[in-house]
Please model this.
Amino acid sequence: MKKTLKKIYKKVKHPGGDLPFFYKRYNNTLGYFTNEKFIRYLKKNQDTYRQSDDPLKDRLRDSVIPTQGTQLLRNVLDLEKANRLSQRMSELIAEREGLQVKEEVKHLTARIEKPVTVLGREVIDIFHNEQMDLEIKSFFGGSFYRIEWLNCYRSFPSNDPKSSWLWHSDNVPTGTLKIMLHLTDAGRDRGATQFLPIVDTMEYRAKGYFGIDPKSRLENLQSFADRHGIPFRPSNHEAKAGDVLLFLNNTLHRAVPPKAEHRDVLTYLLLPNPIPWDQQLAKDGLEMIEEEPGSYPTELWR
Model:
């Protein structure tokens, strides 16, 4: 039966992904086997965590992220440190050192390679922040977690958005979390990421807009919303340098080019884990999280 289903799944082609009918169940279109593997992995790590002596265990609470889609934490990184790291990015970009620039989006962004190596451990020491640590463990329903990868980039003002600057879903498995550390302010006019509510995301999917296939992504969803009689109510957080945004990256969202100046951020993908993040990182080394940002693992256990 399992092999038969996999054969059927491989034949399904749709702009919403291979399996668009799974969005209601998993908030993605990756299919039963991928999502259930991640769910089993999460549950095993929850069981492990319940046997731990983590001091935050008794303070876990219901996370607002699964219903709201986002949560902003203020002043996770000291403002002076955020400013210093942003200045270091300016130096690297001016020297064209340690950059990876994709030709098709070089007018939109410049990515700093190996951000922990070139910027320092302050960009991962944020996970020692007790409030953020508590919120992440609460999101995972009581579990340790690990940093799967991190990415660091600067957004430039532009009137020619592409790819992630269009309304999209990252389409990652259930039981993952993305966070964004702001090194500069990111208000409405300075590149704050826009999000649709989860309930609205589901309505857009029901009408056929998934934002997974880059060729079908739109810059503005107002016309689509009007045509289908559904709401278009994007929102953004007025983030300040040093703030951290936790969010479900399967919810429809888009990066927005700043109208002036630039925006500096680091993004991280987090997964449940049987041991704390810093212990896992000590075992894996920095190369494990710096090398290939942007994807999710097929093998979950390390």
User: Anything to note?
Assistant: The longest helix spans residues 32-50. Strands lie at 70-73, 99-100, 109-112, 144-155, 177-182, 194-195, 244-247, 253-254, 263-273. The chain has twelve helices and nine strands. The first strand starts at residue 70 and ends at 73.
